[in-house]
Each structure stands twice: as structure tokens, then as C-alpha cells.
């Protein structure tokens, strides 16, 4: 059993802190936001993540998981300190490191015994070393030792608990073998593969992995755009490509581009890191630009289906950047809906979970409805932006009755082209033949 403090009870901190407690450790999750801590203490979870609420309750009840805004006390009471605070995008695309630095100062001031400081936040290469320096400058007793470790997070929103409990690999970059071994031992109950390297490489692995996945997505979206023009079907192309184990079948789903809190931020940050280091990472810049353009392919398809958008009612299904989350950060809907409105359309929208979060961002552009059916009623076309199972499984016969014309533009390839043809829909999807 380890005594762990996780500083930052956002998405990453809360999920990993809870999972560390689930495998038997005593974990204190901290946050500077007292409202968040008060909520968590009452068993309320500030984010939507399947299974998290139950797991938090289970571990709080077992006296293994605690919440506090007294960060200094929590640090003093623990041997392993995870830094899991945000690294938002700065003005030039760089990662804003002010929260990480602030935590490092606090750790320095409260370094009362040997501790291992672990970075879980996605941070530019060299941050571990900066954290080490800041702690050295701020520690009161220079004889108290510490180690710094980079142990990046690879969780996906919407399946974070599952990803953490069945972790594919743990990347550990450390300033000493002793610290690396202790963090590796901490992960033993997860029965995962441990990959040990130095601090800088561990930090780089996180950016490289996300940038590579983003590249896969932009690549398959490019292939999809070609497929449409030459009569191929991107679903089959991706399946055929994916059989090559060097390529792999995952992350080859064509659509309206990646969103979320990670890929957009991390690709920008890596491009900035490269620039600063004197390398023009033009491939990565193209990945980012292609992703921006991909969002608008569904707007063009709507134009093709409807002639023009002026005065047309569009029923938008799905607002979150992907299913099983209420996260609206860099969601394609944030670009697409204002564009539809700019072109004169009127938007009625529905999302199973993210409606409130969406309202906070672009409420002025659309009207939202409590049910999918209400949103579609009287619309000239349906536009799918997120592949929630409720949307994939919707009653298509009913949808046909609700719309004024049977037109669906599907940004997530939720339905088979054959079925839509049989059901006599006008159906535009991504990278597959249009049914007109
Ligand atoms: C991503 C990574 O998958 C995690 O490994 C990583 O830990 C996380 O970022 C992070 O850095 O914290 P996440 O942003 O939760 O996780 O979501 P993903 O499931 O990876 O999806 C990202 C975006 O790519 C979504 O908008 C999704 O719709 C899109 N996507 C994904 C595609 O368009 N096609 C695909 O084939 C896969």
C-alpha cells in the first residue's frame, strides 16, 4: 500500500486517483477549487464518465480515497505525489505550464520527507527537469531527497475506468532506478506492461502517441475524401488496410475529424515544441489543417442534398466530441453549427448528455430539445455529428416520418449504405457512395 496524493482533480487526476485507490492504495485527491472538492465529498462527480461515480463511492466508503483542498497537508502526508493539473493551450499553441510550476513550488515548500514526484499531465519535454529545479529552489530542508518521474496518461474519455484498470502499458521515465521501480511496483496490480525510459523520452512518448493517432485520423479522412470521388468505400479500405499488422485496424474511422481535450491541444503543442527546437514539423501542421477542413465536409454535403441552406431547418444529433462524454472541448459541433447558421440555416439540436455543456458554449446558435424526436420534428434534414448508441440505434422509420424530406447527412458513418438505400433515404456519409 502506498500513500499517494494526486494534485488536480480534473479528468486525469480523478480517474487515476480513484483507480490507484481501487487497487488498495490510500489516495488523497486535491484541487484548488473548493467547490469541486465539496461536490466530490458529497459523492457528486464534476464530469460525466461511465462508472466513475460508483468507483469513487466504493473507495470513499472503504476509507481509501479522500478529497481535500488543503494541498500542503496532503503532500506532507504522502510519499508519492502525482501532478495531474491542466496544461491548457497558450496563445501560440504552446502548453501553458503555470499550474504545473505552481504545484512544483507547493511540493517544494511541503517536502518534509523523501517523496517521488510523478508527472501525469501532458507536459513538454524538459518539464520533469524544471519541476526538479523548482522543488530544489523551494525546499526548506536541502537534505530531504526526492525523485521526479514522468508517467504519462493514456486514458480515453468515456472508457477511462476500463482503460485504467486494464492498462495496455505504463510508461515510466525516472531520475533514479529506485523511483522507477517503486512506480512500477505501484502498477503491479494492473498487470500491465511496464516500459521504462528516461524522463525526456517518457514525456515525448505521450505527445508522439497522440500526434500519431491524430495523423492516422487525418490520413483516413483524406483517403475518405478520395474514396468518395473515385467510387471506393472507405470502410472497406480501412478494414483492408487494418489487416496489415504494421498498420493496425484501430483509429481508421473516417468522419468529421478529431476533437476533445487532447488531440487538438497536443498536436498544436508538439508542433510548437518542434518549432522551438528548430524543426518545422510540416507533416504535423498538415494533420492539423486537414482536421480543421474535415469538419466542413458535412456542410458541403448538406448543401448538395438541399441545394442551399438558407431558411432550412437542420436537426443536429450529437454535440459532444465523441460518445459517452459531456466534453465539448474542440467538438466539431462548435465549428459546424455556427457555419450552418452563417449560411442561413436554423438548427434544432439534441445530445443525450452534453446539452448543458454545449449550451455554455454556443447556445445562441441553436435551439435544443429534450429528445431526439423533438429535435428532428419538421426538419428538412438530419445531420449526425456524434455516434452515440442512441443515435446509431434510432428508429429510422420514425425519423422518416419526422423529417419533411428523408435526408440524412452522417458525419460518423453510423448506418450501412445498403440499408439506407433499401429504406429510401437520401443519405450522405463520409468516404462512401452517396445514396441520392
Ligand atoms: C485520446 C487518446 O485516445 C488517449 O490515449 C489519450 O490518453 C487522451 O487522448 C489524452 O491525451 O488524454 P480521447 O481524447 O479521450 O483520448 O478520445 P479518443 O477516443 O482518442 O478520440 C479522439 C477524437 O478522435 C474523437 O473526436 C474521435 O471522434 C476521433 N476519432 C477517433 C476519429 O475521428 N476516428 C477514429 O478512428 C478514432
UniProtKB/TrEMBL annotation:
EC number assigned by the record: 1.1.1.22
Gene3D superfamilies in the cross-refs: Cytochrome c1, transmembrane anchor, C-terminal (1.20.5.100), NAD(P)-binding Rossmann-like Domain (3.40.50.720)
Highest taxon above the source species: Bacteria
Residues that bind NAD(+): 31, 36, 87, 122, 157, 265, 329
Pathway given in the UniProt record: Nucleotide-sugar biosynthesis; UDP-alpha-D-glucuronate biosynthesis; UDP-alpha-D-glucuronate from UDP-alpha-D-glucose: step 1/1
UniProt domain UDP-glucose/GDP-mannose dehydrogenase C-terminal: residue ranges: 315-417
Family annotation (InterPro entries): 6-PGluconate_DH-like_C_sf, NAD(P)-bd_dom_sf, UDP-Glc/GDP-Man, UDP-Glc/GDP-Man_DH_C, UDP-Glc/GDP-Man_DH_C_sf, UDP-Glc/GDP-Man_DH_dimer, UDP-Glc/GDP-Man_DH_N, UDPglc_DH_bac
Keywords: NAD, Oxidoreductase
Pfam families documented for this protein: UDPG_MGDP_dh, UDPG_MGDP_dh_C, UDPG_MGDP_dh_N
Protein's GO biological process: polysaccharide biosynthetic process; UDP-glucuronate biosynthetic process
Enzyme class at the top of the EC tree: oxidoreductase
Catalytic activity as recorded in UniProt: UDP-alpha-D-glucose + 2 NAD(+) + H2O = UDP-alpha-D-glucuronate + 2 NADH + 3 H(+)
Residues the entry annotates as binding substrate: 154-157, 206, 251-255, 259, 322
Active site: residue positions: 262
Keyword Oxidoreductase among UniProt keywords: yes
Any one Gene Ontology molecular-function term assigned to this protein's record: UDP-glucose 6-dehydrogenase activity
Key word Protein biosynthesis present: no
Family in the record: Belongs to the UDP-glucose/GDP-mannose dehydrogenase family.
Protein name in the entry: UDP-glucose 6-dehydrogenase
Amino acid at each position: 500500500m502506498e500513500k499517494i496524493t494526486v494534485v488536480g482533480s480534473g479528468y486525469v487526476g480523478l480517474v487515476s486517483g480513484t483507480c490507484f485507490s481501487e487497487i488498495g492504495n490510500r489516495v488523497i485527491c486535491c484541487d484548488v477549487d473548493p467547490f469541486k472538492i465539496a461536490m466530490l465529498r458529497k459523492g457528486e462527480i464534476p464530469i460525466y464518465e461511465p462508472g466513475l461515480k460508483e468507483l469513487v463511492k466504493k473507495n470513499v466508503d472503504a476509507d481509501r480515497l479522500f478529497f481535500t483542498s488543503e494541498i500542503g497537508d496532503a503532500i506532507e502526508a504522502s510519499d508519492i505525489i502525482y501532478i495531474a493539473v491542466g496544461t491548457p493551450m497558450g496563445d501560440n499553441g504552446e502548453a501553458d505550464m503555470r499550474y504545473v510550476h505552481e504545484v512544483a513550488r507547493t511540493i517544494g515548500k511541503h517536502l518534509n520527507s523523501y517523496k517521488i514526484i510523478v508527472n501525469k499531465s501532458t507536459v513538454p519535454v524538459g518539464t520533469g527537469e524544471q519541476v526538479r529545479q523548482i522543488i530544489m529552489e523551494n525546499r526548506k530542508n536541502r537534505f530531504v531527497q526526492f525523485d521526479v518521474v514522468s508517467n504519462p496518461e493514456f486514458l480515453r474519455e468515456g472508457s477511462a475506468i476500463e482503460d485504467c484498470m486494464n492498462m495496455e502499458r505504463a510508461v515510466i521515465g525516472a531520475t533514479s532506478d529506485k523511483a522507477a521501480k517503486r512506480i512500477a511496483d505501484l502498477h503491479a496490480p494492473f498487470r500491465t506492461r511496464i516500459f521504462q525510459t528516461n524522463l525526456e523520452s517518457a514525456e515525448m512518448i505521450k505527445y508522439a502517441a497522440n500526434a500519431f493517432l491524430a495523423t492516422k485520423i487525418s490520413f483516413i479522412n483524406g483517403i475518405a475524401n478520395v474514396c468518395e470521388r473515385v467510387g471506393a468505400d472507405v470502410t472497406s479500405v480501412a478494414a483492408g488496410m487494418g489487416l496489415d499488422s504494421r498498420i493496425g485496424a484501430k483509429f481508421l474511422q473516417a468522419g468529421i475529424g478529431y476533437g476533445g481535450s487532447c488531440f487538438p491541444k497536443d498536436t498544436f503543442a508538439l508542433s510548437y515544441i518542434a518549432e522551438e527546437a528548430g524543426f518545422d514539423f510540416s507533416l504535423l501542421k498538415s494533420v492539423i489543417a486537414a482536421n480543421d477542413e474535415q469538419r466542413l465536409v458535412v456542410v458541403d454535403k448538406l448543401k448538395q442534398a438541399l441545394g442551399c441552406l438558407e431558411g432550412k431547418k437542420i436537426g443536429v444529433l450529437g454535440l459532444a466530441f465523441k460518445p459517452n462524454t459531456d466534453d465539448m472541448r474542440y467538438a466539431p459541433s462548435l465549428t459546424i453549427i455556427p457555419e450552418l447558421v452563417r449560411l442561413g440555416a436554423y438548427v434544432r439540436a439534441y445530445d443525450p448528455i452534453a446539452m448543458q455543456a454545449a449550451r455554455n458554449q454556443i447556445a445562441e446558435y441553436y435551439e435544443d430539445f429534450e429528445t431526439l424526436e423533438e429535435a428532428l420534428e419538421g426538419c428538412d434534414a438530419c445531420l449526425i455529428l456524434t455516434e452515440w448508441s442512441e443515435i446509431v440505434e434510432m428508429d429510422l422509420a420514425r425519423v422518416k416520418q419526422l423529417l419533411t424530406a428523408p435526408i440524412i447527412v452522417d458525419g460518423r458513418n453510423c448506418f450501412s449504405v445498403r440499408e439506407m438505400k433499401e429504406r429510401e433515404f437520401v443519405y450522405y456519409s463520409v468516404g462512401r457512395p452517396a445514396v441520392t
